Amino acid sequence: MKTNVSFFSFMFWLVLGSFLNSCKDPDFQNACDLNSKINLYSNVINAVSGNGNAFCTIPLPLLSPNGQSSDPASTISLTYSKSSYVYYTDHSISNIPETKGTLTSCTINPSLPIGLSINPNTCAITGTATAQTNTTAYEVTAASSDAIVKATISLRIAGSSSILVYGQFGSFTCSIPNNNGSCSGGSVSANNFNVPTGITTDESGTLYTTDFSNSRLLSFPKDTIVATTVWGQSGSFTTNASGTAAGNLNGPSGVAIDKNGNVYLADSTNNRVLYFPKGNTLATRVYGQLNDFTCGAVNNNGGCTSGVVSADSLNGPSSVALDSAGKVYIADSGNHRVLVFPNDGSIVPIAVYGQFGSFTCGVQNQSGICSLGPPPSANNLNFPTSVALDRNDNLYILDTSNHRVLFHPSGSTTASKVYGQNGSFSCGLSNNDGSCSSGGASASNLNNPQGLALDMNGNLFVADFSNNRVLFFPEATTQTATRIYGHNKNFTCIVNDDNGSCVTGTKSASGLNGPQRVTIDLEGNVFIADSNNHRILKY
């Protein structure tokens, strides 16, 4: 019986093959040409004969995880600039990928957060998200008439409620200095803080924070709330002694990391800035103390005694930043100036902001003849506490006691834009009501701001200390904030630990109490040093 079935099966395929062969177009003799009738005939005969290796190999576009076709002959490609994105609620976004060829469709799976959509022809993701979401992986599929490519990206929608807390053992409801793990004060450890101030991140996402009252700098691997490296305490996480040696600190308040992973640390109470090579917790360079690692004098003029202001002295430096060329910018707060140092390791500055070019003057609101103001101007400063540079090396200076932020075009010591004073360079009042009088808080004024930072897109974030909030200013469009942290979209509220109704409440993931610094990592995650709550919050 089996033999008969096999015989009839063989005869069926033989007859079918002969029929197809008799109908083939003599102009097409390439057995692997998809337009040729011989293609089907040849593959049928090969199937019958068992010659599996004789099947035609039909080239199709190969797919790679980033959406870029790995086949050079592919007719289309799809590439997003990054693999991971953080966007914000109530903020318009436009993520336009790079494409090649003519796309006939674009789809995404799973569905995007509410308020966002994907363009079916360009794969651009646009819209305004209305609610926070967790990080989610999405597969984008682009197609043309003859090819398909895919890209995998992740999106997270951030808002004004924190998703991670450092310094309080993961608790959003605790704010104890040197928390022992049960929301009670204890000894210093790798898990706690006592007035965290300066914060920054490196390219790997590692978080660095100066722990001011514990006289140390801590680093945390990405999304880890236990520190793995400590500066200032000889490698110990359980001590908080201060000192003036190359491995000691005393009230550090600012930190910056260069592109090679070297650390610059504003050791404020020691009136110096220290340089630590990557991987080293002993400083090899000191600014402000004439190469003396054992001195912490104010305006050291030699002999480790306090003297007059000079080009190479410092008085309570609180912040440090670097430009694209590696030049070092130091906010010399007590001398009411910002100093710029060359990128060759020299400890002698090459430029000064806030003192009309004078390295020997250190008065607030300098009038141009080394005498006190007022009023403020586009050229002077009153206790600057933070500095930052954008991707074009434009300089932002937080002029704390003038309650403003100054924008200096690259290379210019005269500010061309001011935040916090309704456009006026001659006013320096807290919560300026628009007529150079102190009033209530608004989206365009400040009160004792302590920290600033810029994200990769040039958007400005300001830690508005006495208003218990952090403000977000869109890039180059307005001096009015469009987003707020700490007050549930309320720009007129100033209470600490706002419960969402402009009333001081219990500690939470959304309230703030005296935020001093802010930083944004390469993915767009926002970190705030909520100093009086002795914690760092990630949004």
From TrEMBL:
InterPro entries: 6-blade_b-propeller_TolB-like, Ig-like_fold, NHL_repeat, TEN_NHL, TRIM-NHL_E3_ligases. NHL repeats lie at residues 182-223, 243-279, 303-344, 433-476, 501-539. The keyword Repeat applies. GO terms for molecular function: ubiquitin protein ligase activity; zinc ion binding. Residues 306-536 form the Teneurin NHL domain. CDD domains: NHL (cd05819). Keywords: Repeat. GO terms for biological process: proteasome-mediated ubiquitin-dependent protein catabolic process; protein polyubiquitination. This is Teneurin NHL domain-containing protein. It comes from Leptospira ognonensis. The lineage of its organism: Bacteria, Pseudomonadati, Spirochaetota, Spirochaetia, Leptospirales.
